[in-house]
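EI: anyone free to look at a 198-residue chain?
SC: sure, send it
EI:
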Amino acid sequence: MSKNQEKIELVQLSDAEDILAIYTPYIKNTVITFEYEVPSLQSFQDRISSIYKTYPYLVYRIDGEIAGYAYASSYRSRAAFQWDVETSIYLNEKFQGKGIATKLYEVLLEFLKLQGFYQVYAYITYPNDKSIGLHKKFGFTKMGMYPKTGYKSGQWCDLIALGKTINESNTVIPYTPFSQLNPADISSILAKANSKLE
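SC: here you go
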């Protein structure tokens, strides 16, 4: 049997429909996301475009099919928070348990370091041992707990906040939006990651 072709790539707007198909069951059937309604394809494309100008947005393909995706987004809107990001990762159910989340996160964090961000936060509906374990593997630590902070599917949900410092420098310089990174640096990071998948 031939080996599956696996690859981490930057998102394309044409991926929106497949990504939304992965995200939809999380909305409809879980409390992992606090979103109630499945967004329209157009609004989801707009989300991707808005995020991708500033932050990395990655997809993981297996034989051309999107098996999962990960991205960073703004942590808070106030100016002083601009060096902080919040991360999100979702996998196609049939590809869970294959280490894809770990591989995506490695690349996502490398891009965020390159951009000059300082703090990375993840907010996870509690309990969720798999997601918490993934983040702890990358050095995230518990920052706090938000009890009964979201109501969905007829239940109150707790939220755990995890955080990781990725830049220890006291010299603060503006971060670089993802769209302004050197294309050669982007290609190098992706090539290095994908060489491990061969």
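EI: The chain has five helices and seven strands.
SC: 👍
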